[in-house]
Amino acid sequence: MKKTYITILLVFGILLFVNLVSEQYFFRIDLTEDKQYTLSEATIDIMKSLENPITVKAYFSENLPPHIAKTKDNFEEYLIEYARNSDDNLVYTFINPNENEKTERDAVEAGINSVMINVREKDQMKQQRAFLGAVLELEDQKEVIPFMQPGAPLEYLLSSSIKKIAVTDKPEIGLMEGNGQASIRELSQVKTALDVLYDFKSTIVNDSIQVPDEIKTLAIVRPTDTINNSTLNQLDEFLENGGNLFIALNRVNGDLNNSYGNGVTTGIEKWLKEKGLEVREDFVVDAQCATVGVQQQQGFFNFTSNVSFPYIPIVSQFADHPVTKGLEAVVMQFPSSLKFTTKDSLSTFTPLAFSSKNSATLAAPQFFDIQKQWTERDFNAPNQVVAGVLERIHDNGNKSRICVVTDGDFPVNTGQQQLQSGNVNLMVNAIDWLSDDTGLIDLRNKGIRYRPIDTLEEGTKTTLKYLNFLLPIALVIIYGVVRIQMNRNKRSRRIEENYE
């Protein structure tokens, strides 16, 4: 009896010791396919650099359908990990906005968006107002995540939001002006997106003015005037020092009023060709395209009809790359084809965006027949490269990147017209990738993957059901058979022993 008491005390003592040790040396094992619950080095660095505490108010409704409620559980899991890596500089609380009118009003005033979802209650479907958002506060700074789509990249949303309010000195991004390029004002949507994490400003580069040392990425958008060799030499020096370039270039120009398109020469296309990037003097035409308005007359009446215009492709085929991940479509006006010609082992080219399988190229100059009836035979050169990245290691060991898009107008705002989100995001993603060494952009597509069983085929569901039911029973039976056989073998050996 005394021995039993001692054993019980030892077990409790060991459990107490393990519990105390686990508070100091906590660890988790992430068995998910793409390490969904393992924080990236970029996130850990952000959290460890915090000097003042951040408060997170998570507004999540209760009693949501399981596939939506999972978002709350996943967000809470991330907050636990963030707090653990922040040296107690992250404090969070969960609030149910549906609890009463005041909490709901507070959520709305904080900038949290509500959505109507279908909920089954007592075998009936009804609509419920749901909140899935959060507010982050650091001193007088505030950042709002208005809505978290189930399956969204929660780590990217949370880490980028923390970085927005915690960063003090924003890295500078230059927009080169002075050669007929698009101005900051013409890139208003891009500037709004970039100014969250960067200081996006105009920069003059010419014969006597170098790229400022504090600028790591320089953007050149839609140059129209000739860029002289002295200025191009300044860009060479910038690259050799480890700088990066984003170039949106028009190699051809189209005029719908005159129904004519011709080649464009600014000097930068020759400079790029020397580096192995040839922006060809041609038009990429694509059956997957936007429409243009055409004036037509019928009797005494004039009317405008929209016709497909293959010279304005809708690009929806992208490489698996941080710059293009998550993009659905980018509308390009008169893009050209891009070809990598260098065999240098120090240079690497990655295509980023392609025309569709029903596309072709037409050499400039061209007369546009807007009324032309295009056929499949007109699209005989599929998957033309219209954007790519050249990475190079220089003789001094520095690395540089040049991201080229063969349409200089895709990120430019014309009048009051708003650009499609894909056009804005292509340039923003590219500059983010060129400028951010933390690897935060890689988290954009680290979403939570849900695999609900009700979306599977009936045969697969039946197989999984019986497998889950029968496998544990089979394992127990196998274990029992093995134990019986082992016991029989022991008895046989004892009987066969020769006791003397």
Our count of domains comes out at: 3
Q: What is the global morphology?
A: elongated
Number of strands: 23
Say which CATH homologous superfamily of the largest domain is assigned. Answer: Class I glutamine amidotransferase (GATase) domain
Q: Strand content of the residues, in percent? A: 25-35%
Assembly context of the chains:
single chain
Structural class: alpha+beta
> How helical, in percent, are the residues?
25-40%
Question: Please, could you describe this protein's structure?
Answer:
31% of the residues lie in helices and 29% in strands. The chain is an alpha+beta fold and 500 residues long. The protein has helices at residues 2-24, 41-48, 66-84, 101-110, 154-166, 188-194, 229-240, 268-274, 421-435, 458-496; strands at residues 54-60, 90-95, 114-121, 124-138, 141-145, 172-177, 199-204, 215-221, 244-248, 252-255, 260-263, 277-279, 282-286, 289-298, 301-315, 317-318, 330-331, 338-340, 347-354, 359-363, 366-367, 385-393, 399-405. It is elongated. The chain folds into 3 domains: 2-166, Glutaredoxin; 172-445, Class I glutamine amidotransferase (GATase) domain (Rossmann fold, 3-Layer(aba) Sandwich), CATH 3.40.50; 453-490. The mean pLDDT is 85. It has an 8-stranded mixed beta sheet. Strands 1, 2, 3, 4 and 5 form a 5-stranded mixed beta sheet that branches. α6 (188-194) packs across α9 (421-435).
